[in-house]
Amino acid sequence: MPVAEAIAGMAAQIRAFIAAAGKPMLVEPGAAPFALADGCFELMERGNRLALHVWSGNANMSRRIVSVDATRRGELALKIELFGGKTGTLTIYDAERPTTRNHGRRGERLELRERFRRFLRRQYPDCRLADLSTEQNLEASLSPNFPRAFLKHGTSSWAAIAAPAEPNTVDEVLSFGLIWLDYLRRREARRNVEGLILYLPAGMQGATCLRLQYLSGAKWRAWAYAEEGFETPLDLADYGNLDTSIARCRRPIANDLAIDVAGVERLEAPDGTVRIRVRGLEIARVGDEGLVATFDGCTPYRTSVEEVTNLAHNVARVRAPDSADRHHPLYRRDPELWLESSVRECIEEIDATLRPAPLYGQVPGITGTAHGIIDLLACDRDGRLAILELKASEDIHLPLQALDYWMRVKWHVERGDFARQGYFPALSIRTDAPRLLLVAPATQFHPTNESVLRWFSPEVAVERVGVGIEWHNKLKVMLRA
Known about the structure:
Blueprint: H1 3-20, E1 24-27, E2 34-35, E3 41-46, E4 49-55, E5 60-72, E6 75-81, E7 87-94, H2 101-123, E8 128-133, E9 148-153, E10 156-162, H3 173-187, E11 192-201, H4 206-212, E12 219-225, E13 231-233, E14 264-268, E15 274-278, E16 281-287, E17 290-293, E18 301-302, H5 305-318, H6 329-332, H7 335-345, H8 347-350, E19 360-361, E20 374-379, E21 385-390, H9 398-414, H10 417-420, E22 435-441, H11 449-453, E23 461-467, E24 477-480
Parallel strand pairs: 10-11, 11-12, 21-22, 22-23
Antiparallel strand pairs: 1-2, 1-7, 3-4, 4-5, 5-6, 6-7, 8-9, 9-10, 12-13, 14-15, 15-16, 16-17, 17-18, 19-20, 20-21, 23-24
């Protein structure tokens, strides 16, 4: 076939694929994806050459296409010519197809990896980059979302990691950074791995820098990077203040409501309402508006004691330890709330020094964001506060999420805010740093939780409490560490 015809055929194949795709994208290894929208690309046929030009608001690319190497549903692989006669690949894919969504993510990860490489070369020019990867490591529980590196300089070395500029992901970087540091110290036993270097997107570094102040056992360095490509060293001493507050604890609304159904709890919440729950699952509340049904996310509406009692019977029949249908949605829903219910009922089984009352659920206003873990705040018989973080399943981020809440409780207890806002009435609360108890089924602590906890400062008095797998039926402590 003449060259010109071959070029025309490739061009027609590429144009047909782009036209048929719902959301055509182009990705090159190590670069961010380009959208192949009208007015953002050009396919040029010139004699025996076929060139593809793409551009966006902040980048552009031009590549000579040598051949269409492979096609499959939703993807088109192109062989391209690079400088020096080398070849490479481009992939055009349809981002609307579920099977191709990883292309965009992988391209973004590789782009961050290359930026991370440039950061390290600029800031640590005397170090040798011995390891740089975005590959997933299941054995060590290392995520591909965070590029990691190992820097060597003489007999010294450092672990390093970077976080993508994604609000829902950036706060996870420290968990994986500590895991990476622990992994390198074990792997490189003959070297001195001094500490961890973190690169954080500017404006999103606050939570990580706060956490670093309560870690020990290594040196910590942090940098903020901007989209423009500049890095700034961060002074951890600048992150001592917390943006936190505690809502006033109101007296509970006086009422004599009682629902005589097994498994039903009547909880007095800090906002003054009385919550009616079935093994942790709320079905109604009593507030200024009277008795209101709140079951299953419904729009709250006024109801009667008889209706709540009937609802409680129906829910309790399914949400029970001896339920005949453990696959029923009501049985499986919100296991942390059920675990909280069991812990409330047997708080002294968790720790004999804790007072069974008062016992508060997550104190309003004390955390900046919900983190999917149930918090209980208790007081021991000596007046020292204790935080119980409850998780019914594995969570690699449990230790550091618990540390977030611990920091805020410590801040408020040192300033006497709990007594001033009406919590733990008639009790003398000590100003010591609170204790931290991580409570979960003994088999459901993530394997890395222990290694992350080893980096906690001695100031953080933390204990893992593992309960038996049959905690739905009877709470029994099987592990203390």
